[in-house]
Specification:
Number of strands: 0
Strand content: under 5%
Structural class: little secondary structure
Largest sheet: none
Radius of gyration: 16 Å
Distance between the termini: 52 Å
Length: 196
């Protein structure tokens, strides 16, 4: 299926474990309930695609165009989104522990109520991202653009925000216990809503 044209395709409830969908046109495709374990969607066009209730563990979406996708209630542990365009995407109530979002564009994305424990966001564009009630324990958000992000009630315990731009970030109730702050200062264990 490499380089296939599957625009508006209904692939819901399919088993695509290990499938190679690289360079495919999957704009507005429906992957709801699909198993995509170790699938490769590298450099695919996925704008507006629906991935709700899918399993994408260890799947690769590197350099994919994924603007305004819906990826809610997903098991995305160890998935790779290196340099992917996820602007305006919805990744709500999902598990992305140990996932790689290095250099990804997550501007205006909704990542609320999801788990990103030990995930890597190095040099990601996360401007105006919604991380409300998200878990980012030990996550790496270094050299990121995080202006106007909403971190309300999120847990950044032992995460690193070193060298990131935190201009106008909302920190209401944000847990910053032992977090490495933008200036490399280590926040005190009882830091909530501000780095003490």
């Amino acid at each position: 299926l490499n380089s296939a044209n599957l625009n508006n395709a209904n692939l819901s409830n399919s088993n695509l474990t290990g499938a190679d969908l690289g360079l495919a046109n999957l704009v507005n495709a429906d992957f709801s309930g699909t198993c995509l374990i170790k699938a490769r969607l590298v450099r695919s066009k996925l704008n507006g695609a629906i991935f709700n209730n899918t399993i994408i563990t260890k799947a690769r979406f590197d350099r994919a165009d994924m603007q305004i996708i819906s990826m809610n209630s997903v098991d995305g542990k160890d998935a790779h989104f290196y340099n992917a365009n996820l602007s305006g995407a919805e990744l709500v109530k999902s598990n992305f522990d140990n996932a790689n979002f290095e250099q990804a564009n997550l501007s205006n994305a909704n990542l609320s109520e999801s788990s990103f424990n030990s995930a890597d966001f190095f040099e990601a564009n996360m401007e105006n991202v919604n991380l409300q009630n998200a878990s980012l324990i030990k996550a790496k958000l270094e050299n990121c653009l995080l202006t106007q992000a909403n971190f309300s009630q999120a847990d950044f315990t032992k995460a690193s925000l070193a060298n990131s731009d935190l201009t106008s970030v909302t920190l209401t109730g944000t847990i910053l216990s032992n977090t490495t702050w933008f200036n490399r200062k280590r926040c005190k264990p009882k830091s909530i809503g501000e780095c003490l």
